[in-house]
Specification:
It is a single chain. With 114 residues, this protein is mainly beta. The protein is built from two helices and nine strands; from the N terminus they run βββαββαββββ. The strands form two sheets. A five-stranded mixed sheet has the order 2-9-8-4-5, with no helix packed on it. The radius of gyration is 13 Å and the shape is globular.
């Protein structure tokens, strides 16, 4: 089974940018719509969006610009995050947009602060 692995998180000041990466597989991306999720301990996984639609801003009033990109050939997905505010802090994961989800990878922590 494909192991999902995320990277690229870190500490970023308010207004800053980050690009997160997720390594999946070409076969998975050919057959599955992938998305990014945020997880805060004690809460459910929260959908950020897929390459077709971003849900984060609308549902949660999270300011900033979020763009999902993917390369089927490389088997990778990216989340470009710009204009971040502290409300975007959390651990970010990639996974299938629809349930049932694949086993969750370790995620990558994003902390927005000074």
């Amino acid at each position: 089974q494909v192991k999902l692995e995320e990277s690229g998180g870190g500490l970023v000041p308010p207004g800053g940018s980050l690009r997160l990466s997720c390594t999946a597989s070409p076969d998975l991306l050919r057959t599955t719509t992938m998305a990014w999720f945020r997880h805060i301990e004690g809460d459910d996984y929260e959908l950020v969006g897929s390459k077709k639609q971003i849900w984060f801003n609308t549902r949660n009033s999270i300011k900033g610009r979020f763009t999902v990109m993917e390369s089927v050939e490389q088997g990778k997905i990216w989340l470009q995050m710009d204009g971040l505010t502290s409300k975007a802090t959390g651990r970010y994961h990639c996974n299938s947009l629809s349930s049932p989800h694949l086993p969750w990878g370790p995620g990558t922590q994003v902390t927005v602060g000074s």
